């Protein structure tokens, strides 16, 4: 068995996507000396590397750029800040003495760090995980696989496609298919409306002539060795029909890349399927933090980066002994009604605000001006209306009420009254 070489750093960041790189830059800017990002891919940058359309960078870098340009920008910022980015370097587990087991072309090592940030991102559930029956023919993708095939490997896709899902990323898949010369027959969603911005929907419908089939689900995919047709069902009355296509892209329906978090033994959230964090990004294990899509699957890249930046600053404060990292203790935040989850899920200190001063809620229904109430026991901490609820999109709740939380009180409850 190969001996692992020990390697010591101040902070190890697992994952070189927007969240991990932004955190690493913030750590260096806060004066932390040895910051190392461990990234399994050949190049750092995360998902944006293979998402070649524009729409990245607005909230964090104050400009709009394509995904690859955005990824390169973060890699450059990390280099300028003096971050060590080790690519083709995979964290495979945790050593018995608290280190990270790492596999890289130069061999096996154990990285020991005073603090670790997990920023491993999220992935879309592939077809088998969605229980869609039928043949196992070629031509079935998730958006991530599709974009890697088209933009990273330059390989052909197919001729005619159905996109399953109508949140932002479904429209992103549509643009990739068009770029690859594939006719897009339709986007489908089981919900009564698309979940993206209106201009995307109108652009698809009027400019590109791609319909969004609402209230529609995919019940089977058929064709071997190549996909030939997809069977669709109208949710309202069960009416079924088939659509000829050689490509189907399953989009959205995210699950965090949470294997390392699970094996770290930190408290996990049964709703997000990521680690439970407090407003600083601290998990239940002191010195172990998390950020980005691992915690809130899935946000836009700039939000993931801002959450990384926030966690990086928190880690620097923690290393300097100026912040607690004990999300295991404290007050849990619970959600009710048509809310699927919240991030953060725990309040360690009512003085800490989450990234952007907002708690992220994930609604499961559409609603205009929904009423939201935050309470602790009998005390109402905040109530008011949010602009809207759209399933699979964040609803941002101002976190001013955190200062009124009783640290020895009951769980905080966030209810949506729609
Ligand atoms: C198809 C698509 C289109 C999108 N379009 C937009 C858009 O137009 N605008 C926008 O703002 N956002 C968009 N997004 C969302 C955006 O890309 C993500 O929110 C963002 O990349 C999340 O950042 P992250 O750092 O949390 O995760 P990721 O970008 O997923 O990065 C995680 C990184 O961790 C690495 N990693 C994981 N496990 C390990 C391990 N064990 N060891 C080492 N490395 C590991 C991965 O290789 C990866 O590089 C899109 C997403 C998709 C999928």
Class per helix and strand makeup = alpha/beta
Task: Estimate the global geometry from the Cα principal axes.
Answer: globular
Q: β content, as a range?
A: 25-35%
Discrete helix count = 8
The total beta strand count reads 29
Q: How would you sum up the major sheet?
A: 7 strands, mixed
Could you list the spans in which at least 5 consecutive residues all have pLDDT below 50? none
Average pLDDT number: 94
What oligomeric state do the depicted chains represent? single chain
Helix content bin: 10-25%
Span between termini: 59 Å
Overview of the molecule:
With 418 residues, the chain is an alpha/beta fold. Helices cover 21% and strands 33% of the residues. It has eight helices and 29 strands. Strands 1, 2, 5, 6, 7, 8 and 19 form a seven-stranded mixed β-sheet that branches. A five-stranded parallel β-sheet has the order 10-17-11-12-13. Strand 11, helix 5 and strand 12 form a beta-alpha-beta unit. Helix 4 packs parallel to helix 5. The longest helix has 19 residues. It is globular. It starts with a strand and ends with a strand. The mean pLDDT is 94. The site of flavin-adenine dinucleotide (FAD) has 37 residues, from helix 1, strand 3, strand 6, helix 4 and helix 5.
């Amino acid at each position: 068995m190969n001996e692992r070489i020990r390697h010591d750093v101040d902070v190890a960041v697992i994952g070189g996507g927007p969240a991990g790189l932004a955190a690493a830059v913030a750590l260096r800017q806060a004066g932390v000396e040895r910051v190392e990002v461990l990234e399994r891919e050949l190049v750092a940058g995360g998902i944006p590397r293979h998402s070649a359309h524009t729409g990245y960078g607005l909230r964090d870098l104050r400009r709009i750029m394509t995904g690859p340009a955005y990824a390169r920008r973060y890699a450059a910022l990390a280099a300028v800040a003096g971050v060590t980015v080790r690519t083709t370097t995979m964290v495979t587990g945790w050593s018995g003495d608290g280190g990270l087991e790492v596999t890289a072309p130069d061999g096996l090592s154990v990285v020991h760090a005073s603090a670790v940030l997990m920023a491993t991102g999220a992935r879309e559930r592939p077809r088998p995980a969605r229980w869609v029956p039928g043949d196992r023919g070629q031509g079935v993708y998730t958006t991530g696989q599709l974009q890697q095939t088209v933009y990273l490997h330059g390989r052909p896709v197919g001729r005619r496609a159905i996109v399953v899902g109508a949140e932002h990323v479904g429209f992103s898949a549509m643009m990739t298919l068009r770029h690859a010369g594939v006719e897009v027959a339709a986007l489908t969603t089981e919900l009564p409306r698309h979940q993206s911005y209106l201009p995307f929907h109108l652009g698809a419908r009027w400019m590109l002539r791609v319909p969004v089939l609402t209230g529609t689900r995919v019940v089977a995919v058929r064709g071997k060795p190549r996909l030939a047709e997809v069977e669709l069902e109208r949710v309202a009355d069960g009416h079924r029909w088939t659509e000829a296509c050689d490509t189907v892209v399953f989009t959205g329906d995210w699950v965090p890349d949470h294997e390392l978090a699970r094996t770290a033994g930190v408290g996990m959230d049964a709703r997000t399927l990521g680690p439970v964090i407090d407003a600083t990004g601290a998990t239940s294990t002191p010195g172990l933090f998390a950020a980005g899509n691992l915690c809130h699957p899935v946000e836009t890249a700039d939000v993931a980066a801002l959450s990384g930046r926030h966690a990086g600053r928190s880690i620097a404060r923690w290393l300097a002994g100026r912040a607690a990292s004990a999300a295991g203790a404290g007050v849990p935040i619970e959600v009710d009604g048509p809310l699927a989850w919240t991030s953060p899920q725990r309040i360690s200190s009512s003085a800490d605000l989450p990234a952007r001063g907002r708690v992220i809620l994930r609604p499961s229904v559409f609603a205009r001006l929904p009423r939201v109430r935050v309470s602790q026991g009998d005390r109402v901490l905040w109530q008011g209306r949010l602009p809207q609820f759209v399933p699979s999109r964040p609803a941002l709740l101002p976190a001013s009420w955190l200062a009124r939380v009783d640290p020895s009180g009951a769980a905080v409850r966030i209810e949506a009254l729609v």
